[in-house]
Structures are given as structure tokens and as C-alpha cells.
Amino acid sequence: MQNKMDVLLGLQWGDEGKGKIVDFLAPKYNVVARFQGGPNAGHTLEFDGIKHVLHQIPSGIFRNDIINIIGNGVVLDPVIFKKEVEALDKYNIDVRANLFVSKKTQLILPTHRLLDAAYEEAKGKKKIGSTLKGIGPTYQDKVARQGLRVGDILSESFKKKYNKLVEKHLEILSHYNTEYNLEAVESEFFNAIEFLKTFDLIEGEYKINSELSAGSKILAEGAQGSLLDIDFGSYPYVTSSNTTTSGACSGLGVAPNNIGEVYGIFKAYCTRVGGGPFPTELFDEDGARMQKEGNEFGATTGRPRRCGWIDLPALKYTIMINGVTQLFMMKADVLSIFKTIKVCTHYKLPDGTVSDIFPYEIVDQEIEPVYKELPGWNIAIDKIDEFDALPEELKSYIQFLENELKVPINIISLGPDRTQTIMRNGVLA
Ligand code: GDP
Ligand code: IMO
Ligand code: MG
Known about the structure:
By secondary structure, the protein is an alpha/beta fold. The strands form five sheets. The chain has a ten-stranded mixed β-sheet, sandwiched between helices. It has twelve helices and 20 strands.
């Protein structure tokens, strides 16, 4: 029986809680696959009192008998990959048996990281706030048709190809004021390449499509968020890949008519890490309280996340672009500290226009959010385990969002742990 691939992706600026929910849903799937991004991602999973952060390895890895695939759309840093695998060793996880890497996945070289840092530095005040993991320069080389791919490491001429590309990078770096010691990082890199060779390097698109044909259930795990998408995000303050549903097709080799459910995940409020526009950002005490209560510090870089109220024009936009069929709302527990909850329903543009469109001018124009206020629940909810037991004010908040967004909210997350998750409407049926 031919199956379709479901996709889970973030609808805001990343860190919505994708890792937690992929891990939660994983038992219902046979395969979990990453389709874009790289170690800029930090996906947090919590269970049995332990917190894990995954960067490149899919979040199905802690479940037995689930195949995890790193797809062709990903940019892989072998050094970080080795560290991630080694960190899993102590939990007795048979990573090698359950993890496959597409040969078409692009490799992040040490010089890509140097270039990332040099480009950011040169941007001065306009810097993007990149995670400095080499993501942008690696995708640049991919598009320039000169990148190195995982499959290349099996070739005898790998070192030659590597040297040729590094030579180009060093030439570019010579125009910047950068200091580096390439020798040390190169030996770590080649060590990690040997390590990577011990994994199953596969034709990912054949593997995924044959799994679908055999009736396997596949979940594609997005990284970053839709507002960081290279085409549709707040350009140029974005990442360098398509973080939206179409990225799952090109990043894994799955045809659009083989996409099933699209799970859109969002926080009950909104955060952003790095530079760029954020219309509902709070600079007051409320923002500081949200950040503290939500423990809003980046899982990859430790940077504080900017915080603000939920933004419906942005969510409507990303639901449209992704074709979201079900919504999952995260971190509702964080809003328990407020007596009143604000929801941005529209944007007011400098010319006075009020609209719920996420505009092209998002980066250059001062956008004023138009808020609706709803009563908060203002009591602890992190121990509630069924929908009916939720406070009425939270149920009204959910109802209001569903009416506005026109998509059912089928998971409500009330804490970081796997168990703090409420399902509705038979989402896993
Ligand atoms: P991802 O990148 O989308 O996987 O998200 P991150 O892991 O970067 O950030 C989400 C953070 O929120 C992590 O620290 C999670 O442990 C935490 N988290 C996830 N869901 C919830 C929730 O419902 N409530 C609270 N309080 N924390 C949550
Ligand atoms: P997960 O998967 C939040 C942000 C960076 C920066 C911009 C570009 O954990 O949700 P890059 O390193 O990609 O060139 O940085 O994108 N960014 C993220 N923000 N969550 C992420 O991933 C992110 N990955 C990149 O902060 O603003
Ligand atoms: Mg994250």
C-alpha cells in the first residue's frame, strides 16, 4: 500500500518545539527524516528526567526500530555529527543501525565556517545573527555547483576535490580580516570524515520512496521555521534553505502528490533569535518575564531569544505557504504568568493601512501590531493531562486561534517533557 509522507515544520522563527513533538509522534512512524538545514538547528527532547539536544540527527533516534534519514537537502558538518553520535553512545542507542545519510547531502567544510564568520563580521550592524555554523556558505557552494557531497568522501579523489574548493575559499578569505589556524580544524575534519564513512551512506530518495511504496509511515522533520525560509521569510534575515513544505519534497526526493498531513507547529506566543524584523517583539517587563518563564535561550548558541505576543498575520501566511492541515500549539504553560493575553490580529503600516497580510516591506517598514486582548488563565497548567480539564480561558484562546487560522489545533503542549502533551481530535488515530 503506497503511503504518503507527513511533514512537521515550524511556522514562526524556529525553536517552536519541533524536536519534542517529533520524538512524541515518532512511535507512530517507521521513518523520521531531516530535509534541510544543518547544525544551525537545535532540537530539544526531554524524557525520563534527561534533556537531549539534537542538531543534525533526526529526533526519532531515541525510539527503537525507527529508521532515521539525513536527506539530500541537509548540509552536514561531519565534526558535529561525530560529536552527536558519541553523545548518544552513552545511552546505548544503536545509532549505526538506525541512521542513514544520503550521499547527496552537502558537506560543511571548516572553511565554510570561517567564511560565515567573515561575511557576518563584514555586515556590521546589518548582520543576520547567523549561528556561524557555515550554513550560508555551504548552500552557496551547492547552488554554485561546486559543493562537496557525502558521496564524494568515498571517492579516491576526495582530498583533491577538497583542496580545490578550500583554495577558492582561502582566496575569498584573503580579502577579509580573518585569522585562522586551518591545520588543527582540518585534522579534526578528516578524522570525522573517516568516522562518517562507517555509516550507511545511501541513495536517500530511493530508500524513502521504496519505504513509502512498502507502506511505511514517514515523518519529515523540519528545521528552523517558515519565517526563516530563503524565499518566503523576512529576507535577508533568513536562513539559506527552504524550510517550508516544498523543501521536504526537494530535500528528500518525495513528489508533491506524496505529501500527506502537514503539521504546523507554533508557540502560544512568539520568539526570534538573531537579527531581523519581529513586529510583536516586547521590550518591556512582559517580554522579560516571557523569556524567563519560557527559558528562551537558544539550544545551539545559548543566545537569549527575543520574545513577543503571537502574530496572526505571520501565522496565516505560513499556514498558506505550507498547506498546513493540523496545528500544534506549544508552551501554553508559559503564558500562565499573564492575567491578559494579547494576540496580534493585524498590522498597521506607516501609511495607515491596516491589513492581515505579511508584507514584502516587513524588513524596511515600521509595522505596528494591532492587538486584541483576551483574558488569561493565570494558573499553573503544566500537570493537566486532558483537554477538558484545561481552564476555560485557555480553551477560549484555542477556539479564537482556530477561528482565525481556520485549521484545527490538535496538540497542546504544556511543558518540555514528552508526557506534557495533550492530543485532540484523534490526531494519532
Ligand atoms: P525546536 O528547535 O523547534 O526543536 O525547539 P527548541 O528545542 O530549540 O526550543 C524549544 C524549547 O522549549 C526547548 O527548550 C524545549 O524543551 C522547550 N519546550 C518544548 N515544548 C514546551 C512546552 O510546551 N512548554 C515549555 N515550558 N517548554 C517547552
Ligand atoms: P531550529 O531548527 C532559531 C536563525 C539564526 C539567524 C538566521 C540565519 O532549532 O528551530 P544561519 O546559521 O542559518 O545562517 O542563521 O536563522 N536560525 C535559527 N533560529 N532556530 C533555528 O533552528 C535556527 N537556525 C537558524 O539565529 O538569525
Ligand atoms: Mg531549536
